[in-house]
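YM 10:42: Galactose oxidase sequence, as discussed on the call
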Amino acid sequence: MRNTTLQYVRKPDWLLLLASMVWVFSCQTAEPVATIAPDPTTIISPTLVSAQALGNDQAEFVVKAGFEFDPSSWRLNLLDANKRSMALNAGTVGRLDLFTLMPYRITGLISGQTYRLRFVTRNAGGDSVHVERDYVHRPDGPRWTRLAHAPVAGGDFAGSAMSTDNVPGSDASQLSIWQLKSDNSYQALSYSVGSNSWYAYKLTTSSTLGTHGIVRFSLQAVKGVVYSMSGLGFVTNESLPGQRQYLKNMVTPDFAGPDGEVRWFTTLTKAYQLVEGGHSQVWVRMGTWDQYRTADLPEPTGTLATFRIGTTGYVVNQRSGQAAHLWAFDTEREQWSRKADFPGAIRSRGIGFQADEKGFFGLGITPNEETLRDVWQYNPATDKWQYVTDYPGAGSTYLVVSQIPGHTFLGWGYEQQPTAAGGIRLVGCTDFWEFKP
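YM 10:58: structure's back
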């Protein structure tokens, strides 16, 4: 395992957890505050942030950089199957509040052909950066729509998103992501679907200090009343590197499951919570705040990803030395059944989500720390998996996934960049995408 360093440091000593909020459909409101100010000590190094098909033979690649850098500060090459360099046409620099975006376009690509992107630059600290990325031209695959970059330049890029697709009638015009800032406080970012823009919001909680990996979900208690529950996660201590203290608080009663990172799926009135790391317990949080233990997963947990299709929850369970198992949980009978194994590469920090009555799983990193951006689709009607697309964005780990009625969003997270010393540099990502199968 290579050493890992952070370009945008995820600060230690996270303190309190955030209290629960309650809202009713008829009175859910929020008030924008001032534009987010960048961390004055942060310099945004050049990074390759997206690779996206634009048409049958066209594609666009985008470089993001701070204002201190110009196009002469990096080199971007595209190689064909014979390793011949292809001409890229630089577009107009887009200047945003915190950074610039430089697009490069190309025509003459062949559908299904694999190309190689090579990006060479130096980061803000002067270290060399050499990133290579495969790009498979697939103009007829699932549609990715590039959205506005999040206006953040520091802090934790593994934001805590609220998904409300389990609650019919919930707001489909905006979504909420909380970000842990460099000073240990939280800011709430709201993305407006209609205007494709971000806003900063004040958190109406008892504290603005929080933890890593906060769990957030919405559950209906009675018709028309939904509780937005937030909590759990973990804190770290810089004097004890690699060790975490997992928190139990969310609502009363505290989470009764074992320590570890929690993964979950939700129905309208219940959240089913599992913990990674060898456990099998499944705890159910109800919209009334009560909890109970339901049928255990039939095997110990490894690395998990979850999604829900209809009234069935699905868990991808990856344990060392075995295929990645897919388990289905009938939430009406509260029974588990084994489904088709995931056929792709074993990975950690993969993500799961659902769209159009299908399940999706992908991204992450391999045990050898190789970046993965493949996305696979699971069809419950046929109990089969198939590869469908690559994620066009920069990140591969700790991505934010947020779902509101009719929309699925992915973005943020971290990109893994190799360093000259043989280690890994984690670079925070701000690109954001909507996925439609």
